[in-house]
Fold this sequence. Notes:
The protein is mostly helical and 491 residues long.
Amino acid sequence: xxxxxxxxxxxxxxxxxLLALGRQEQVFAVRWVALIAAFxxxxxxxxxxxxxxxxxxxxxxxxxxxxxxxxxVFYRLGVDGISVWLVLLxxxxxxxxxxxxxxxxxxxxxxxxxAFLILSGIIVxxxxxxxxxxxxxxxxxxxxxxxxxxxxxxGPNRVYAAFKFFLYTLxxxxxxxxxxxxxxxxxxxxxxxxxxxxLPLPLETQTLLxxxxxxxxxxxxxxxxxxxxxxxxxxxxxxxxxxxLAAIMLKLGAYGFLRFSLPIAPDAxxxxxxxxxxxxxxxxxxxxxxxxxQQDMKKLVAYSSIAHMGFVTLGFFIFNExxxxxxxxxxxxxxxxSAAMFLCIGVLYDRVHSREIxxxxxxxxxxxxxxxxxxFFAMANCGLPGTAGFVGEWMVILGAVQANFWLGxxxxxxxxxxxxxxxxxxxxxxxxxxxxxxxxxxxxxxxxETFMLAVxxxxxxxxxxxxxxxxxxxxxxxxxxxxxxxxSKLN
Length: 491
């Protein structure tokens, strides 16, 4: 049992402890236990970065314990340059979510905090699993806490949104389970994911496996046209739910492509790359235009997330280092920026109880400090140079140009549409004259909210100005993956 096990089970056990603290008079203790547990989980993941050896593509911090010996199933964990930052992002986001809910959630506080801590541990398990069955268990288990979060603390249509989210993602994952069982028998009764990477499979088999994995991961990203559950889930979810959904859970599908689809079915990935690129371009261009006409701020940022994640899937399937590294950087930067965008919407909603753009106007006059943060994060969402939102998208565009100039040009149109819908929202919500009495009565953010947004602002700025630690960590792992995929194609 090592650092990864602690990173998984510390938040899960802490969440279960919180469920036992159910009385209203224990709310103060619940909040502090949740915060301490979240910070402790973050502290455990930091050594994964500080002790990470970026010169090797091998899995690090590995753990290997017998789980179901009869069927050769192991509790097998490890991280490489692709997954290590995602583990840290998960723990970091959980801290932000706990702080964001400190004064906002007043009922069933123990269940709310407990659900997020349990979800955090499960997601770390997804990113660090090296056993196929263990991965599937963690991957599916993420549905339960998020379903509860949306279904209990969500908006008026929360039950519909929770069911839609659950059914979409569960249905796709069933095909992945069939693929995992096939690989288990094909490998001689082994669930070792790294061993699956070396299986010599004919193109027809790879194609079936590729689309079985695609069914699970495309829904999770989500890719067009299986994206319709996301805007509903975001609109109905509480602020913390939207933050985790956008910042972390969308990354599970993208990570699945890197860990399963590309290395296990490399020939099929090359064969069907045009299909994934086409769907990604639709997400980047068409969904960006859909975001432009939204009147609900949450729905606008939700569609924005689909467009940004289109860059991720596009970057994976152009098969060059710039594109793949840029896509992984985009996953991390989108985690920071989307979390900040949803938190800003949450700050306004807590005061006015409306997400409609038409309910605001001139917020800068009554909330100048908050507006400074909100506009900064909006600029990052546009892809402004110097912010985290720029780095990943720019790398993917450069990688796309390397592959095909016209592909790169189409990809770059997202920067225009992204600026259009984001700045259009900023203009109507934050600038101009004070629109109504609700805006006139607003009070600026308090110390808790300032700290929460300031931490995210530092992260967005740091990654935008100095992305080298991120790219250096993933470089060797990305090169090794692309080499594996290229060699398989030649064979």
